[in-house]
Amino acid sequence: MLQRVVDTTNGVLGNTDAAQLSNPTLCTEWTVKDLINHMVGGATMFAISAEEGSVPDEMLGKLMGGDNVGTDPMGAWATASKRAMVAFEQPGAMEKIVKLPFGEMPAGIALNIAIFDVATHAVDLARATGQHVSDTELLEGALAIGRQMVGPELRVPGVFGDEQAVNETASTEDRLLAFAGRKI
To answer: Which of 46, 87, 108, 174 has CB atoms 3.0–4.6 Å from 170's, for a disulfide?
Structure first.
C-alpha cells in the first residue's frame, strides 16, 4: 500500500507545473510548495525512524519546520519517498518500535500513519492543482486507516481539524478530506 500511495503521489506531482507551486491548498496555511515541503519532511522523518528507531531532535525541527525542498520540490519528494520505501522494506523493519513526535509505536503502525497522511496530502495536492486521485481503493484503504488511528487527541490545530460533514454520496476524495478536517 505504501508503494501505491507513493506512485499515486508521484503521478500528481508529475502533473504539477512549477507555476502551480504558489497555489493555495486546502491546508489553508500552505501553498503547494509548502505542502510538498511538509510531505518531504514527513517521508524523511518516517524513513529515519524506520532506519534508526527515532529521529534526533535537532533534525526533527528541520524536517517539520525547515526548508526540505530548496528549488527542487519534485526531486526532493522523489528522494524522500524512495528513502522511506527502502527503510520500510529492510529486513526486520516492521518488527521495530519507532519513536515519532506523537509517541512510540510499532513500525507497522507508523507505516499506516504515513499511508494515511500521504494519501490525504496527495488529494490535497491534486485539488490545489486541478487534478483528481482516481485510485478509490487506495483512498478507501487510507480512510479506513485514518478512522482507526485518528482520535480526538490528534484533532488539534496544525494536526487534524474536526471531521467535516459530507454528503453520503460524496466521492472518496471528499470523504477522505472531510475526515481529515478539510473544509471542502
So the answer is: 174
